[in-house]
Amino acid sequence: MTLYSWTIWIFGFAWLLQMALWWGVFAPFAWKKRKEPVTKASHLPCSVVVCARNEANNLQQNLPKLLGQEYPTYEVLVVDDASSDQTLSALKKLCAIHSNLRVLSIPVKKTAGKKAAILQGVQAARYPHIVVTDSDCRPNSKMWLQIMMAGFSEKASTEIVLGYAPHDAAPGWLNAWQRFETYFTAFQYGALAHAGQPYMGVGRNMAFLQRKYSTAPQPQLASGDDDLFVNANASAGNCALCFHPDAWMYSRAEASWSHWLRQKRRQLSAGPHYRLRHQIMLAGIAVSHVLFYGAFAALLLMGGTPDWVWVAFLLRGWSVALLISKSGKQMGIRDLSPLAPVFDLLLCLYWGVLTPALLLFGPGKRWK
User: Fold this and answer.
1) Is 302 in the same domain as 157?
2) CA distances from 26 to 30, 44, 73 (A)
3) Structure pTM?
4) pLDDT, the chain, mean
5) What is the extent of the structural domain holding 147?
6) b/e per residue 232-270 (b: at least 16 CB within 10 A)
7) Domain co-membership, 144 together with 45
8) Is 90 exceeded by the pLDDT of residue 124?
9) Are 230 and 155 in contact (CB under 8 A)?
């Protein structure tokens, strides 16, 4: 076979995989109704666990929103992970005002990452249902906790509830890209969980049973403990999704490209520790995306691109734009939906060029 023939076959194979993904996995989730009725909410006592390291300002701004939830019985347990700023003094002031706030102080940090801090917080929690978030996050409403806890009422076997944590909107391409990437990550893990293949979640908005948080050794990474917990413990039978708008957990995006790149290095460090089937699944999604664009570009350079290739290219583009528009309206990126073709191409570059480069450099050393 000639190089041209190989390129045609690669394009066709990648197109088939991509269409199966978008219509077989993403489409059912894109059309899934997000606004679950709040009447499902349970009133099981729960503990909200927040790990903080040098977060005095964020805690003063965001903790009152966590402490002011409309939920009958809950505590907020903040783990001060050996902070060197005014975090501890700020927490003591808040404790004097809020009776449902507790503080667990770790005087000396002995391991990288925040897994040890999270583990100590979960073990010290008063209640068996745990909800986790970060100190730089704020809930979208006073119903956040009630709706997240409603996830445990969907089925008796639920042990893990995966939420959604978008970024605040701000001017500039960096913010637009981070908002889209955060949306697409949630769209992907939400769609795969909906299809019975939960593989990750975000520690900014997640709930689980206390006994489910494993004490088994895991890599001490600067980031990704939330990914690895879900990857090791979630299944189609014990995992629920909560993408209700009132239960979103907002945070600010990174302010510079260099900070975003450091964040990506940390987050990508978890991927190689996923279950093998999940690594293969995610690699298939990314590689088929890159091969689709790469083969199409190669055919354009070779000349003589068949009409069916153009039809296939446009059909996939229409599918992506339609499903991103549909899901984007429900996940807070309505303003970015018209740019779906641009972001789809950027995803190709992100997966094909930037991700391998960041993995080559290795993970970052600190989470804060």
Assistant:
1) no
2) 6, 33, 37
3) 0.92
4) 90
5) 38-175+197-270
6) ebbeeebbbbbbbbbbbbbbebbeeeeebebbbbbbbbb
7) yes
8) yes
9) no
